[in-house]
Prior knowledge:
Elements lengths: L9 H5 L3 H24 L3 H8 L3 H8 L8 H10 L12
Helix pairs in contact: 2-5, 3-4
Amino acid sequence: MRKTDNYENVWDAIADTPGQKANLRIRAGLMRKIAAIVKESGWTQTEAAKCCGVTQPRMNDLLRGRVSRFSLDALVNIATATGRQVHLELESE
Length: 93
């Protein structure tokens, strides 16, 4: 019989280190916020891509939540291209 591991969240299951987990969590959060901006703006993927300075297939990856295809730097650049500011907070565990 195989032991089943239980995780608090998906990032715990796929990340090897706390740093990797934090990076994945932050990237996913930024992607959700960017996707919400695209939806609120009523943009097509092509319009969103043009506004954000990326290709339509790249925007499709973002809107589909393909976290592994985006660095934190890339997501910050995309978010700021929408006219938003990105803020980062450090909290004690």
